[in-house]
Predict the 3D structure of the following.
Amino acid sequence: MKKIILAIAMSILMIQTAQAAGTQYEMRVDGLACPFCAYGIEKKLKAIEGTSNISVDLNKGLVKVEITEGKSLTEDRMKKLFNDSGFTYRSMKKKSL
């Protein structure tokens, strides 16, 4: 009985993971200098529906964010978000998860 319950739980987990697959975006940004900069950007990105796993690398000037399937981030939207926050948006790469 325990094996059946465990198998069902694993199946549900695998289905949820497959449904959560989406896209990862990596943005190059100038001006990220401190943890407060990172926190501000994370907060703005979290406000966008479907975003998750946000990371900011201050040394490299990289911001990575995952977004659920069916959602997307546009160059114009990211440029506005970063520029309005006082940073210089440089580029964005996109890859499927």
The mean pLDDT is 86.
